[in-house]
Hints:
Strand content: 15-25%
Bound molecules: pyridoxal-5'-phosphate
Number of helices: 11
Radius of gyration: 21 Å
CATH topology of the largest domain: Aspartate Aminotransferase, domain 2
Amino acid sequence: MAPASFIVPPGCIDLTVNDPTACGFVYEQSLYAPLTDEEPSRYRPASLGVEEARLAIAAYYEARGVTISPERIWLGSGTSELFLQALWLVADPGDSILTPAPGYPLHEMLAKMADTRPVEYALHYDAGWHIDRSSIEAAWCDANVAACCVVSPSNPAGLYLDTDSRACLEGQCTERGAALIVDEVFADYPLRDGANTFFAATEPSCLSFVLSGLSKVAALPQMKLGWGVVLGPDKAVGQALARLEQIADAFLSVSTPLQRALPRLLEASTPMQKSIRRRCRENFELLREAAGRGAFGVYESDGGWNAVLRLPQLPGWDDTRWTETLRYEQGVATQPGYLFNLADPPPHLVVSLLVPSPTFRVGVARLSEGVDHFVGAG
Ligand SMILES: Cc1ncc(COP(=O)(O)O)c(C=O)c1O
């Protein structure tokens, strides 16, 4: 049975829902038409992906001012699978992979699945999130670092990779022959205008893989299509693509009809992204206002679908106790910060900004009242 901090009791407002298909966004039925439009019965195996799909991804970047050759793109069933494939490519068993903390737990798990050793580096909060350079230096002391993973914007912290941090990571990877793996699934969701960056806008000096996919870009997690872009010195890119072709050929994981539908699915993502950005910004603002009045704090964030809350430190109250008390006594479900490797103390909670705003408002009011109440009682 699931632990108490993961059950959502009846009547509870659920601020953990991160699945866009369950958050009341409108998906036009016509969106699914291209899946059956053209030759749905024909199979066209292509290791790195069919040409029209790779062209559509290049066009997605072009619309963001980033020119990428379709030849440097490969497809998979999602960012998770592509991350694993990139690790198989660059790492030997026992090598270390640097992963951010706080961070989405998936990367650490996938690093272990690839028989590599995840080594954390820290994101530090000081009026805003930053990559903690000293923890990066310490992590690099590990003898066999095969890759450094960056999530931009990070989940749940919402930190986009800035120019200085990029130069630092790129320099270290180049010096040590390691690869950079940049997960940009949330790059289209800045919480304020102009906060977003795209890694591929500048050619890196080290072998780099930029990963993204439909689950966030088009809010279509059920479609199971992601892509990777290989960047860096030409020779390293050529070798990597040749090897990726073999790895991807063992899976051929994306269906032909879905790949052929990709141009229209990406086209339809523009209005969907707009709706999601509007909601996330509105909810984040609401959260900041509530934090200004209540006993909890909200960390500043530049992007993504989650927000991190800082709870008061009361004797005996950790993430789990706050999560369970708020769920069962206050009727509001949040995620405990430890799931994302957020340090405790202070206790942290993570809430989803995708929740419909009227529901989000009620949930935040319950949370705020609950925190005030338990602080008063504590
Ligand atoms: C930062 C991050 N990367 C990757 C993923 C998984 O993406 P995909 O559905 O493309 O495998 C998630 C899912 O929430 C995520 O938060």
